[in-house]
Design goal:
Blueprint lengths: L7 H14 L2 H15 L3 H14 L4 H6 L7 H4 L5 H11 L6 H4 L1 H7 L8 E3 L5 H11 L1 E5 L9 E5 L6 H11 L3 E4 L5 H4 L9 E7 L4 E10 L13 E5 L9 E2 L5 E2 L17 H12 L7 E9 L2 E8 L9 H4 L6 H8 L2
Antiparallel strand pairs: 1-4, 2-3, 2-4, 5-6, 5-10, 6-7, 8-9, 10-11
Helix pairs in contact: 2-3, 9-10
Length: 340
């Protein structure tokens, strides 16, 4: 695609906002962590972090997560970063349609045919309906309509509910209004962590004709209701054919050669049904074409991919050189597909 640019004004607004919110203590903590991990002089790391943030659009956590302290300029230039991703979201995700992705209830309504599971909404007068749904499912997942990073997600078992009126009132009072059937994941995913539904983050751009897959990250949980890092989860990047690029890692300096609970070697993982995944992402990208740049969370089940949610602020998942030995990222793929 021809270069379209991202515009100077959004970048300046973003930098101004970051400057107002900068946490100096946090910067020094990140620099200290990087210094210890890579054997670099801390003052030099601080200066490099600030320079990278101000002139190269590198978030402070990006600098830590993607080992920028050991990369040269050419290698760093291949990495997608959160400030650049934010610009893409602002440019290509129409503000009139973002609410569909921000509200989980609205998202389920709009993308219902791609969920492939039952769901309902709790309201003031449907305690009996909630009971019937929960008893039929056995286990349910509840979600607060607005939340991120796994916050507001809970799991309940029908066998543990004694008072259904109180259960219903509790969900309603806490704002856990969206109730969903539990997804049954593919055996290849369950082999790594059976206690959590392990999602695949597929970052994609829809150009009006087809969806381009820009990056794929496989997330793994630790038995909790969510595979997000706030629940102890971690991820590994996948290549275009679904093969893991190496061990798993998170933003807290934890590296997992094997899954801590199952012992599965993360580098041996391969996402099943990749052809179906590609076709599925292209289908869901067409539902709301006005939101072109999306981080899709999907789960591969025994019968094919299903949709968990879409993130119009796609965020960034990237390769970690100190873990994989690979010193390049996915930005060239973003540039080729989007043209910036």
């Amino acid at each position: 695609m021809p270069s379209q640019g991202l515009g100077l004004a959004p970048r300046l607004r973003y930098l101004a906002g970051r400057a107002r919110r900068i946490d100096v203590g946090s910067v020094f903590e990140r620099a200290k962590e990087t210094s210890a991990h890579h054997g670099k002089w801390m003052p030099a790391v601080v200066v490099d972090m600030l320079w990278s943030a101000g002139f190269k659009q590198v978030g402070f956590q990006d600098y830590v997560d993607y080992d920028f302290a050991i990369l040269n300029a050419a290698e760093r230039a291949t990495y997608m970063t959160h400030p650049v991703s934010n610009e893409l979201s602002q440019k290509y995700d129409h503000p009139d349609y973002r609410h569909i992705f921000q509200d989980k209830v609205e998202f389920d309504r709009v993308f219902s045919e791609h969920l492939h599971r039952e769901w309902m909404v709790v309201d003031a007068g449907n305690a009996s309906e909630l009971r019937a749904f929960t008893e039929r499912q056995g286990t349910i997942v509840t979600k607060e309509p607005v939340g991120q990073a796994g916050t507001g997600v809970h799991r309940y078992h029908a066998a543990e509910v004694d008072d259904w009126d109180a259960f219903h009132a509790g969900l309603f009072a806490r704002g856990e209004l969206l109730v969903e059937e539990v997804i049954v994941q593919h055996p290849d995913l369950a082999a790594v962590c059976p206690g959590t539904v392990n999602t695949t983050r597929v970052t994609a751009f829809f150009d009006g004709e087809r969806a381009h897959i820009l990056a794929m990250a496989q997330k793994f949980g630790r038995g909790a209701v969510s595979d997000q890092m706030t629940f102890g989860g971690f991820y590994t990047m996948l290549d275009e054919n679904g093969h893991a690029l190496g061990a798993g890692y998170d933003s807290h300096a934890h590296v997992h050669e094997t899954h801590p609970d199952s012992g599965f070697r993360i580098a041996d993982f391969r996402l099943p049904m990749m052809d179906e995944v590609r076709a599925f992402v292209d289908r869901v990208a067409r539902v709301v074409p006005q939101v072109q740049y999306v981080g899709w969370d999907i789960v591969v089940t025994p019968t094919g991919p299903v949709l968990v949610e879409g993130n119009w602020g796609a965020g960034v998942y990237e390769n970690k050189p100190s873990v994989t030995g690979i010193r390049t990222g996915n930005k060239p793929r973003y540039r080729e597909a989007i043209g910036f």
